[in-house]
Fold each of these.
Amino acid sequence: MKRWILGILSAAMLWTAGGCSVHIQITPDGPAGTQPAASDGAGMETAPAPGGSSAGQTDEVTAQTALEIALDHADVPQEDAYNIKTERDGDNGIPVYDLEFETDYGDYDFEVAIADGRIVGADYEVDEEWLDRLGGSPVSVDEAKELIVRKVPGAAAEEIRIREEQEDGRGRYEGELFFQDMKYEFEIDPATGRIYDWNADLRR
């Protein structure tokens, strides 16, 4: 061992004597089984992510966020909802939150995808005697289609089938839409512009 060290020192002295300098860096070995740090492509080294997770991985939707998505979609204020029930389930292989809540004017059921918050199922109906009390503004057929487009982002008004019906002296718009593996059926009150019957079902 001493001869090896003396040999290195002798070589260094001879190199220095010739007008050159020597820089010797001794790097201790890391713990057994460790992996070298990866480069980020810009000369910087980054340690492996803990647990093998990759950078930029998104978190799944929480149950509270799923409830807020459902309430907003149904146009129900948070304070109107009670008897709220939430559980994890699946629909056609998609992990979802099954959400149920009640209001004084109707019962609501939603399925919200845990991965991205997409609504993959919904079923609710507002009691008709509440329509005038809940209020709103009159809408034409074209305006009713726009209400559906806002409910289903990406859908086009010309894809919506809608017709006007009369029952018990009160008119209504009935219609349906097929879009991205989903079937939507709905009824809209022309006097208030309120969607009072809504069904969304994933078809695969």
Amino acid sequence: MDNLKKTPVEARDPQERIKDFKEVSFTYTPEQAMAEAKRCLNCKNSPCVAGCPVGVKIPEFIKLIAEGKFEDAYGKIVETNGLPAVCGRVCPQENQCEGKCIRGIKGDSIGIGALERFAADRHREMKKDSGCSEKTANSDAKKLAKVAIIGAGPAGLACASDLADFGFDVTIFEAFHIAGGVLAYGIPEFRLPKSIVADEIEAIKKKGVEIKTDYVIGRIKTIDELMESGYEAVFISTGAGLPKFMGIPGEGALGTYSANEYLTRINLMKAYREDYDTPLMKFKKVAVVGGGNVAMDAARCARRMGAETYIVYRRSEKEMPARAEEKEHAKEEGIIFKTLTNPVEILEDENKRVRAIKCVEMELSDPDESGRRRPVVKENSEFEIEVDGVIMAIGSDTNPVIGNTTEGLETNKKGCIVADENMATTRQGIFAGGDTVTGAATVILAMGAGRTAAASIKEYIEEKHKK
């Protein structure tokens, strides 16, 4: 094999995969994984590790795969990452670890994400075949102190995993009926099977972490009431699940969804399955507004639900924040990209249902504060796209319930909780991290925040007990 070329990740045929929600990409075979791992230069300064928000020991686990020590490789990964099968599938490696890979200077970077996924999937397969289970925490072991985590998404799960390893008594309070956060309600089955999410969460629970679902903090109990009941520290990781809309005329038309609602109905409420009676409008033609990963997920779901699907994005494809792989898969599946296009109105029929989306053409000028070229409207460029559904995937905000019910907890003008580099908030003993602090970002950045918070909580409680 040419050492400059990455071992390709194979995928299902596009014409077959748009008919179902089965996973699109395949895991490396052992032979493919070892071949790819042997491309690694084992750099001494390991820039790939610096590019990983949770600090996975990348050259070490890759070396173990190259040697055929697959279970040891998995063990090396989970020293710092409690959700390896998830991260191997959904992390934007091209902008993080793989983006820092020295091998990528001349040729392709190492397929770090694909190798992480291989190690995790191999472990899961071997565990299932052997009938073995993950090590269960010693229930008789003395716990150091009680810590509450609000939200069972990536940040909360990463924090809980580390705190359990440190020896704390950890309880997660989750508003939904299942744990996982965006992993459960946001990312489609064809990118991240829910059985994998469930297995990774089960491994964290076996460390002694308790997860209480259907429990809305700020409504059932406040944070102050949690602390009064014996929790010595609290980590807020409620994410950013409040959808944004454009504020254009017609957004109230029947057939307009936020991406959050559309994806939740499909993923968490299983609207794509014949044996579930989830209410969801079936469309013939859909416009998905936005250019991020959420927009790609919504568009690819709509395609699988039988709709001709458009991505409507106001900048060019080059400026789209979505992963290159997601854009490529969307195109393969027949999704039509309408770039340099911005909606200005959703048009209704006589029954107040969506009948079209009115747009204007855009052109790019000088870069704005995001570093991307600013889109400006072309004069006299209005046109219509005939659709019966519109999905808004233009970002999301944090839910205000925690900020509104916790006195002294500072939030910024966007409603995000203010926290320092150690994830400490303006209230002593209360920490926060992930999307609830940064706004909508990536799974792995949220996990990195969770790990940082766990270390800070450990230090805070140990200092408190010294006094």
Amino acid sequence: MAHKQERVTFESAGLKLAGIVHLPPDYQPGERRPCFLVLHGFGGNKDTNNAQVPAEMLAEWGYVTLRWDMRGCGESEGEHGRVICLEQVEDTQNALSYMASRPEVDPERIAAVGSSFGGAVAVYTAGIDQRVAAVISSGGWGDGARKFRGQHSTPEAWERFMKILEEAPRYRARTGKSLMVSRWDIVPIPEHLRHNLNSQSIQEFPAETAQSMYDFRADDVVGNIAPRPLLLLHAARDSVTPTEQSIELFKRAGQPTELHLIADVDHFMWGEQNARVMHIVRDWLERYFPVRAGLRAAAAS
């Protein structure tokens, strides 16, 4: 049985954000189901593999899900390509408020799942907002400066990247405009993985985007998530985000937190639809964030 989809818009900081709500195939009117907010990756959108696949999978498993375009991305309003970490945190909080207002959703059981950039934003949001009931991060990161050092690993590459950050304020002072930078100069992605970005993915960003990522530290707030459950997934040899990023998040997190390093996947593991990843996620959900508990709570209320 196919699940139902609804195109929606909601407001964040005066901007209209575009999203798609998925209802489980067995949803019955009057139920209040647990919900997942599905966050896309860096400069992506709601239709990339790392957003669409988990949104549809979780809906099939019984959760209401929302995948949406962050401001400046996809079909949402906002300056195109202006991707700022703390603004995406704000968008996620407003997505949560929107879903909490919907009659199909149990407002006490709204979780977040994100991949890469979206994983970092999901963890940070839960670290500052107690309304996030659970978190799944796939290939996420906790320290932007350290992450970039791993992604630009040679002295020459690191020098080139730091020159972008140093030149950006001078360029703005001189021209009144942002210095624009290729996505590959911010986050290098091997050629063989680039097909995971669809044609709507942003290819050029203002240098302020790179600076906001450099300054962003989910490491500092991940400890606030406990006792809410956290699942950290990472490719054991990630070609994009250094694997140590999730290891450090795990070290700083409280319990219950699980970390799984998976050998036979790479950075875009949702798009690979790896059976072991799906099994790990489903088992974790059964233990820490089951659909049944949400239905019982709704029936009792």
Amino acid sequence: MFDSLVGDVALRHPQADKTMLKWSTDRNMWVRRVAIDHQLLRKSATNTELLAQVIENNLGQDEFFINKAIGWALRDYSKTNPEWVRDFIEHHRSELAPLSIREASKYL
């Protein structure tokens, strides 16, 4: 719920992108998770550069909830732009957790 609230504010105020990038490297895992998930359900309004950077900032994690969030974010966007998600997965396959790949690939 918090991520959708943050996402709604960020969509209306693009200057929040800088905050999301900062949050994506926060020490608190839950803050990072909000940064990863804040663009859920945006469809064609998804900022793919921001999505990629936020996810890349969290690759190589052992944290279940971060890896699950990465997968959810990619899976959600795959409904709009499956080619972008396929390319992202292929480019980062060695860094993505199996959980993230499994979640992201659900609709591919």
